[in-house]
Amino acid sequence: MQRIAWFAALLIAMATLTAPAACAASEKLFLVTAALPPLGSAPGQAGFLEQVAREAFRRIGRSVEVSTLPGERALINADAGLEDGDLYRAPGFEKEYPNLVRVPERMGYMEFMAYAKRPDIEVHAWSDLRPYVVAYATGWKIYDRMVKAREVTKVRVIDDLFPLLANDRADIILIDRWQGLWAARAQGYTPRVIEPPLARAEMFMYLHKRHAAIVPELARALADMKADGTYRKISDASLRLPDGK
Length: 245
What we know:
- By secondary structure, the chain is of the alpha/beta class.
- The chain folds into two domains: about 140 residues, 3-Layer(aba) Sandwich (D-Maltodextrin-Binding Protein, domain 2); about 90 residues, Periplasmic binding protein-like II (D-Maltodextrin-Binding Protein, domain 2, 3-Layer(aba) Sandwich), CATH 3.40.190.10.
- Helix content is about 40%, strand content about 25%.
- The chain has nine helices and nine strands.
- Strand 1, helix 2 and strand 2 form a beta-alpha-beta unit.
- The longest helix has 24 residues.
- The chain is globular.
- The N terminus is likely disordered.
């Protein structure tokens, strides 16, 4: 009888020790992004970033839920631990937001473009912006650092930019390639996209430091997705404009 009681106690102890690990392995993470379609999700359609994140976390035994917040708010919430991470940021944000840990395998690239209405405007470097009225969305740190212009207007969301251009309230608006093309097409605008990009940057996922332990395996999962073709398949299927092109 004592042997049976001892064995039962052992089973209970083992269950107690393994329960936290099992719970951690099935934990759902709540991530945020400021990205709009096709990088971010549209109603009823998961965007590129969400699809990549879901698959990467699935491969390490986790699940994720992705929500959209304005750029600055997304970073502040992730750094404060109100969210578990931010999906798409350039390298170096951990210096300004010390509670964030960068997943070292890139999520993708972002091309920072200038859009104009007037045919005479040409922009080949940041310094070429100086004579113009320039607008961009709040929370885009690269523009805060690099833009020196005759006048700068900041708007809350990307969708507010193209009306400024159409109504001659800005000479140039600054957005990345994919979100800009999507927003313009969705709103019925056909602005000039000035080539080449003002900058092109690798983009990374950041997790709150409480999840630092899973960063290496998440990086491996992303690398494996690229090696086995899953990443390319998601990219080809999701990085499209509203009309499917």
